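Summary for the steering committee. The consortium agreed at its last meeting that each partner would contribute one worked example illustrating the joint modelling workflow. Our contribution is presented below. We chose a case with several input lines so that the handling of multiple components could be demonstrated. No manual editing was applied between input and output; the record is shown as generated.
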Amino acid sequence: MKRNSFWVASLTASVIIAIVLLVAGSSTVTANDQPSAANAEVKIDNFVFGPQTITVPVGATVTWTNKDDIPHTSVSTEGVFKSKVLDTDEKFSYKFEKAGTYPYYCTIHPKMTGKVVVQ
Amino acid sequence: MADKNKDLIDQTLQDLNNDGVDRRGFLKCMAWAGTGLVWTMSGGIPSSRAFAKTAHRSGGKGSDFTFVQISDSHIGFNKPANPDVTATLQTAINKINAMPHKPDFIIHTGDLSQLSKPSEFDTLDQVLKGASAKQIYFVPGEHDMLSDNGEQFLQRYGKGTKGSGWYSFDQKGVHFVGLVNVANLKAGGMGSLGHEQLEWLEDDLKGRSASTPIVLFAHIPLWTIYPDWGWGTDDSEQALSYVKRFGSVTVLNGHIHQIMQKVEGKVSFHTAMSTAFPQPAPGTAPSAGPMKVPADQLQKVLGITDVNYLVSGRSLAVVDSPLANSESSASGNGSGSGGR
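What follows is the complete predicted structure of the assembly.
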């Protein structure tokens, strides 16, 4: 009995170690669970920026795509970035070179707000 | 104050008794007007009146007049909710032109265009050129501010206006004020009039007799209908405080693409239908955007607003009518002959 459980324990341990090594070697999982660091997407639909708060690393480019049937804009409240008017399917991209928190909103429908956190 | 109200009530009742329309005739008139919303404010007292009855008044009353409000034409919009907004605007103009009484002027309460493009404004102008009323007053909607903070709009429709396009004018004793609440909108906020415009408004109204009927018109509603969707104006309270002392105040707005009305004291609020596409009732959809309806229903949810000013009661009768009626459109009923 004792011998069996010892054997099971060591087998389980080696399986676990094997899985950990496999996972550590994978490049698809990073510390803050983001996809590739270079780009991030914000989808605009139903008068909402989705996700409303997006966290990206320094140097990442955020691209807003308007999937709504109404035009929207993406404008920083601090004057950092400003999109043109985005009609359906139009996009706007901005590269965030500095860490910080960047609140923004739609100037046409100001109740629509969002935030980019760069760290 | 109570005595003054009593006098006005008596005056109204007297009026109803003297014009030869008996109760049956009155009810017939009410049925005719039934497809729209009919109400009047007379010296601050709401009273329901048949629109047809008011049309019977002798034409000789010089200062009676009518005007039409249209709104939210969104020229340039071409999505499923209405692939041809130019055609429905034309239908609205045709409807105005077919009215038995030619309106003195038209007021467009904003969102003339979808994207503030010159071609969109050009198309709008082309359609409006065919209107029976040649005088058209405009205030911008947020969709008209998309190029250089409304520069296009101001160049075309802002002659003689101040700031982002506000102004006032008088018509046969009624004072009209066009306000702009779609400029410099703040993140997380709703519509906004701004300090400069509020100061101008206070000054504009100063010294006017309290018996002067006032009509305020602006794109976004000047009362809070649904904040989550931005349906309201953050600083409208201050503006409304300036008109508090007047005996008759009518507020005409657009933006929400449906009819909503409210009476608060002597102030009557009214929002118009769009000539382009409807929007959902507050909270009944994920967002305030264009609402698709079956194609054969579209013209029933788009419409115009006819406003009839009666100098005798200093009252404005507001009648909304869709571009297409559900029942057959009514013809005028017998004039004052009463009953059958």
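The CA atoms of residues 70 and 116 of chain A lie 23 Å apart. The beta strands of chain A are 39-45, 48-50, 53-56, 61-66, 75-76, 91-95, 100-105, 113-118.
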